[in-house]
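Page 42, continued from yesterday. The earlier attempt failed because a stray header line got pasted into the input along with the sequence. Redoing it now with the clean sequence only.
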Amino acid sequence: MTTGTELHPDYVTGTWALDLAHSELAFSVRHLAISKVKGFFRAFEVTVVTAENPYESTIEATIDVASVDTNNEMRDGHLKTSDFFLVEEYPTATFRSTKIEGTADAFAITGDLTLRGVTKEIVITGEFGGITTDGYGQTKIGATATTKINRLDFGVNWNAALEAGGLTLGDEVTLTFDIQLAKQA
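This time it went through. Structure tokens are written below.
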């Protein structure tokens, strides 16, 4: 069995909650086949329970899909409709880890993402930022990670043909997580 301190000298077991003021969940998707549209989910929760064996730790996240923010109210309103997130019927997306692998610096988290009532296995890869104590005496942990999903897999099928050929939106969506968590007492 691998212990956390064997993986990282500052490893601490316990329950960790999201520090939303120092975290970000962003996404991007190809638009008009020439650029990317980027956006954020402004409200989400993450809970991590670090186990003695770090590979037995768990991660759970809930995203308030209605908090989507692309810096364009009209587009955000469209994203909340049945063409995209169908927020009325599916107000949240969830993630639950099933497997954690990695080293002191890099990790791969396999888990189940549920969006619009569809659950698919995804793999999130990233870098461990470290563990520290902030100026208020709180123990913090940080990480940056990404994954790519195919929106069609989750029933997000809307698209429109372009006069010049091609489609308005790409199928692949990149999710980027910059996460800071605080250890709970």
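Notes: The first strand starts at residue 14 and ends at 18.
Reminder to self: strip header lines before submitting.
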